[in-house]
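Hi everyone,

Forwarding the result from last night's run.
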Amino acid sequence: MQPDNFTTSFFGIGIQNGKTPENLGVLWRTAQNLGASFIFTIGKRYANQACDTHNAIKSLPYYHYKNFEAFFEHLPKGVRIVGIEKTDKAESLETFSHPKRCVYLLGAEDNGLTLEAIERSHFLVQFNSQYSLNVAVAGSIVLYDRSRNKPMQ
């Protein structure tokens, strides 16, 4: 029997306008290790990553979108966007209930998410840190938090 699509959980994680291919490679490896269904980029596109020592590119689908609009148009039905951004509008990761079906969207360290991405995210989440973190580190923290078996929405 196939699982009901409304109870099946899955998630992806991606970077908008990433700065370096190394960040994508590290995030790709973490995503594979912590159960992501796919990874994606918006804006810049990177090929196989030298820091992907587990060869996640062969086991975890990678999608690229030219811009945010293309990404938004291709979201699977019922999937929620969780923007990771230090802003007054964001809720704390420590108390956040992760959606069962979502994509986590991170921006580059220097510019963060675009205004369009912030406005169109279903949730905005941040975690306690004095300064902005490397995008791969921030993504890894979010994925680890999801893996902790916290209650989901």
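The radius of gyration is 14 Å.

Cheers,
N.
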